[in-house]
Structure formats: C-alpha cells, structure tokens
Amino acid sequence: MKVLVPVKRVVDYNVKVRVKSDGSGVDIANVKMSMNPFDEIAVEEAVRLKEKGVVTEIIAVSCGVTQCQETLRTAMAIGADRAILVETAEELQPLAVAKLLKALVDKEQPGLVICGKQAIDDDANQTGQMLAALGDLPQATFASKVEVAGDKVNVTREVDGGLETLSLSLPAVITTDLRLNEPRYVTLPNIMKAKKKQLDTLKPEDLGVDVSPRLKTLKVEEPAKRGAGVKVPDVATLIDKLKNEAKVI
Ligand code: AMP
C-alpha cells in the first residue's frame, strides 16, 4: 500500500512572527521556515506503518515555492521514499491544495493520505477535510492512534469527554493530532541518503488545477498587548487583589 503525506513549509514554531506595518499579513522575510509539526507526525506515522510491513511506499508532497524542496528532503530524511513538489509562487489556500492533492491521489492511487490536522501558519484546519470531500473518501480527523487491519483502518480520535474509534475502509484520509506519536530525530546519514532520493516537480497546470485564491485577507492585526503580571506574597493578598483590583470575585 502506498501512503501520500502532504507536508507544508511554514514559519518555524519557535519564531515570534511580526505583523507587517500595512496590516496585509505577517512578515516572513528572513524568517526560519520548517516542516509543519503536525506533518512531521504524519511522516513519522507513515514510516512506522512501513516498519510494521503494512505500507510499501511513502510519497511526500509539498505545494508551494521552490524552497519547499527542503521540506521534502526532511520528509525523506525521516523515511519517505520519494517526493513530489507542486511548484507555484501563487498564494495557496486550502481548497487549492486539496484540489492539487486530489489530482495526485487520482494519479498515485494511495491507500492512505495522512495530513496534519492543521498548518500552524494559517491554522485553517481544512485541507484534509476538503480532500476527503473532493475525493469522496472516508476521513478520520485528529487521529491519536492508527491501526491498519486488512482493507480497513481503525483510527482513535480524542473528542470531548473521551476517545472515539472509527473504522474506515481504504482508501481514506487521516489527519494527525499531537499525541499520535513523537517524530524521530533526523540523523546525518539519513539526511545524506535523502539527498539521493527521487524528487519530481510538477506545476499546478500539469495537474489541471486552477490555484487562484478564492479568499481575500482584509486585515491582519497583532493581539492586544497584555500588562505585566505581579507576584503576590500570600493568598490573602491574592484574594484582596482579585476582589478589590480585578473585581472578579
Ligand atoms: P490547513 O488546512 O492549511 O490547516 O493544513 C492541514 C494540512 O494540509 C497540513 O498539515 C498539511 O498536511 C496539508 N497542507 C496544507 N497546505 C499544504 C501545502 N501547501 N503543501 C502540502 N501540504 C499542505
């Protein structure tokens, strides 16, 4: 069984992003970029399924600028077998990515697509769901456990008040939650090996997809600044402050 793992290049989670002065977005010039953390978990899960002998080939896919090649090389260093870059300088919104992925699913016929639950830049949390809808595929979002059994996959999801387990028939779309696994450390020999793995580049036109944006960002603002906190010496002072200063009790 083949697995397709979409990986997005995003601003590194340690970077404190700044809003551009004209409010048109955040400044990503000269900022460290990395693989979306939920996508690292997705690649790791695919590799674990391969190690269990359930999966035969892992294909990492990234849609975006030329530098997404670096993200794909990282995916291959974790253990993906080959990679596809759908290259475009156009701003890509989740629907456009879902359409590109749908075209690749038609081409590659994977048994599973494992996406991240959301990209930490736009926090859209839409692409996996849109892909499932476009491809008419079963979906299980926010997976915390994945078990392939024959032509089915059992996915445990964390929901309010407990765990829910779904059984999906393959092919299917899964999106990963934080507790699914802890991605392995990428070793230097694996980084070197990844350089030699196959990376194909396509354009959205090659897949017959129009990626032009459908949504317009009107304004991006910094959250309001919070005042500095104070340390209180004892519980009595805390209660006094909550009563008389903050007036919350
Ligand atoms: P989002 O819907 O933007 O929050 O993204 C959810 C997931 O879709 C990500 O974790 C990735 O697995 C995938 N995805 C989104 N955008 C891209 C992209 N440009 N290239 C590859 N995968 C993507």
TrEMBL record:
<dbReference type="InterPro" id="IPR014730">
    <property type="entry name" value="ETF_a/b_N"/>
</dbReference>
<dbReference type="GO" id="GO:0046395">
    <property type="term" value="P:carboxylic acid catabolic process"/>
</dbReference>
<feature type="domain" description="Electron transfer flavoprotein alpha/beta-subunit N-terminal">
    <location>
        <begin position="23"/>
        <end position="211"/>
    </location>
</feature>
<dbReference type="InterPro" id="IPR014729">
    <property type="entry name" value="Rossmann-like_a/b/a_fold"/>
</dbReference>
<dbReference type="Pfam" id="PF01012">
    <property type="entry name" value="ETF"/>
</dbReference>
<dbReference type="InterPro" id="IPR000049">
    <property type="entry name" value="ET-Flavoprotein_bsu_CS"/>
</dbReference>
<dbReference type="GO" id="GO:0009055">
    <property type="term" value="F:electron transfer activity"/>
</dbReference>
<keyword id="KW-0249">Electron transport</keyword>
<dbReference type="InterPro" id="IPR012255">
    <property type="entry name" value="ETF_b"/>
</dbReference>
<keyword id="KW-0813">Transport</keyword>
<comment type="similarity">
    <text>Belongs to the ETF beta-subunit/FixA family.</text>
</comment>
<dbReference type="InterPro" id="IPR033948">
    <property type="entry name" value="ETF_beta_N"/>
</dbReference>
<protein>
    <recommendedName>
        <fullName>Electron transfer flavoprotein subunit beta</fullName>
    </recommendedName>
</protein>
<comment type="function">
    <text>The electron transfer flavoprotein serves as a specific electron acceptor for other dehydrogenases. It transfers the electrons to the main respiratory chain via ETF-ubiquinone oxidoreductase (ETF dehydrogenase).</text>
</comment>
<comment type="subunit">
    <text>Heterodimer of an alpha and a beta subunit.</text>
</comment>
